[in-house]
Amino acid sequence: NYSQKTDKQNLFQKKRKLLSNIEKYRSEISKGTKEKQALQLMIDTYTKTPEFGDASKFQQELDIVSQKVEKLSQELSILNRDLDLVESKMNLNMRHSLLATPSRSLLSMNTSSSSSSTGTDKS
Q: What is the dihedral of CA 47, 51, 52, 53, to 10 degrees?
């Protein structure tokens, strides 16, 4: 019973940490998206008005920021998947405690009929 309690605490801590990280990533993605829009505007302006200078210097920066935002988005997807898993485990734990049955792992529930000993090996 004590291990179930610590498992629940660990899941709550994981969930809290994941939510915090998800918020950080969303904030970084938002900043990156705004930076991309600003850089695109600079490129458009410099392309339309070449006397301002060379637009290609902003293109390299835009490419870097775009890659950064893409990587952050991928990592955010992973965090969201992890959060879904933690919440699923929390729901399973809650169901088990409501039903007051001992929790069984999925592995122990998977009983395959691999015990094929016949017992007729007498020679």
A: 80
pLDDT tens profile 78-113? 999 999 999 998 888 777 666 655 555 554 554 444
For residues 17 and 57, the answer to whether their CB atoms sit within 8 Å is: no
Q: Is 11 left (phi over 0), alpha (psi -120 to 50) or beta?
A: alpha
List of residues 6+ apart from 22 with CB closer than 8 A: 76, 79, 80, 83
Amino acid identity at 13: Q
Q: Are the C-beta atoms of 17 and 9 separated by less than 8 Å? A: no
Q: Within 10 Å of residue 62's Cβ, how many Cβ atoms? A: 19
Q: What is the pLDDT of residues 45-79, one digit of tens each?
A: 999 998 888 888 899 999 999 999 999 999 999 99
